[in-house]
Write a structure and sequence with these properties.
alpha/beta; 434 Repressor (Amino-terminal Domain); Rossmann fold; 12 strands; about 40% helix; elongated; Lambda_DNA-bd_dom_sf; DNA-binding transcription factor activity
Length: about 325
């Protein structure tokens, strides 16, 4: 029979959550306890990298990936890239991946219920956050292990999440443009919903205010009125490309007339000129860490919930320039 965390805990004379924290080198665990756990693992032949051992007998040996109930998923390269990363990490841990997708919340909930109740999967990675929905309420109510990619607005203390610091990213975008000499900026969005929009815009807005500069919100569902604005912070790369195309049609040149900075560093960011200055949100690491955290929860469902923050990096390209 495979050695489990509970076996290690019994051998070391501690509880299972202490073993989990020791394995992840948590600062709350003393070096003495970590050494005790390490010895117990060695004595029992426990391997923290073996999902086959972590997933107890009778489990499916598979995880579910829940896509958001939106129609245009294929237009968002984020989803395919993170799914690739999730598959890579799952394969390394000898587990399989199943996908849950639906056009509505009701369809999605029905599929998730069937997948779990028929023991096709042991837990889920949810690729959307924000306000709670029926799917998340079901997972919480039935105490099903899951990890969210994003930052939940409600019941965050009960949920393990993997995300970037979107507020900091918004602030960094404004600061970078300010360093180039831009004094009048705008944040461009095509939605006023979702945690990503709210956090990125909040970071942008607060940084603009702290610098004493001019900044406002523009929505692409209406005609963009640029006015004296010299720089745009756009919600994501796909929208940024559409904005640049619209500006070009009106005779506005990027970056000579106006600078554009975006987020996600998708494959489209360097396909057409001007190449986008954009934040790389490290999608591969988001996918890998979400699988790692889910396996951790499957090994010890009672362990503490936390938010894992993945670092980002600004990729400076052609769509931004200093003000003359």
């Amino acid at each position: 029979m495979a050695v489990t965390i509970k076996d290690v805990a019994k051998r070391a004379g501690v509880n299972a959550s202490t073993v989990s924290r020791a394995i992840h080198n948590h600062s709350a665990i003393s070096d003495k306890t970590k050494e005790k756990v390490k010895k117990a693992m060695a004595d029992l032949g426990y391997s923290r990298n073996s999902a086959a051992q972590m997933l107890a007998s009778g489990k499916a040996g598979a995880i579910g990936v829940i896509f958001p109930p939106i129609a245009n998923k294929s237009e968002q390269p984020f989803f395919m890239k993170i799914l690739t990363a999730i598959n890579e990490e799952a394969r390394q841990n000898k587990i399989t991946v199943s996908i849950a997708s639906g056009h509505t919340n009701e369809e999605l909930l029905s599929q998730v219920r069937v997948m779990y109740q028929e023991k096709r999967v042991d837990g889920f990675i949810v690729l959307y956050a924000g306000e709670a929905d029926d799917v998340r309420n079901y997972l919480l109510a039935d105490k099903i292990s899951f990890v969210i990619v994003g930052t939940p607005i409600e019941r965050a203390n009960e949920i393990t999440a993997v995300d970037n610091d979107n507020k900091l990213m918004g602030a960094e975008a404004a600061q970078y443009l300010a360093n180039l000499g831009h004094k009048k900026m705008a944040f461009v969005t095509n939605t006023n919903k979702g945690e990503v929009f709210h956090e990125r815009y909040r970071g942008f807005s607060e940084k603009i205010q702290s610098l004493g500069l001019s900044g406002h919100l523009l929505n692409t569902t209406e005609k963009l009125t640029i006015g004296e604005t010299t720089a745009l912070v756009v919600l994501d790369d796909i929208l940024a490309i559409k904005v640049i195309q619209g500006l070009t049609e009106r005779g506005v040149n990027v970056p000579n007339d106006i600078s554009v900075i975006s987020f996600n560093n998708s494959v489209f960011a360097s396909l057409i000129h001007p190449y986008l200055t954009t934040f790389d949100i490290n999608i591969t690491q988001l996918g890998h860490r979400s699988v790692q955290k889910l396996l951790h929860l499957l090994a010890d469902p009672t362990d503490f919930k936390e938010k894992v923050t993945v670092p980002f990096e600004l990729k400076v390209r052609e769509s931004t320039k200093a003000v003359n």
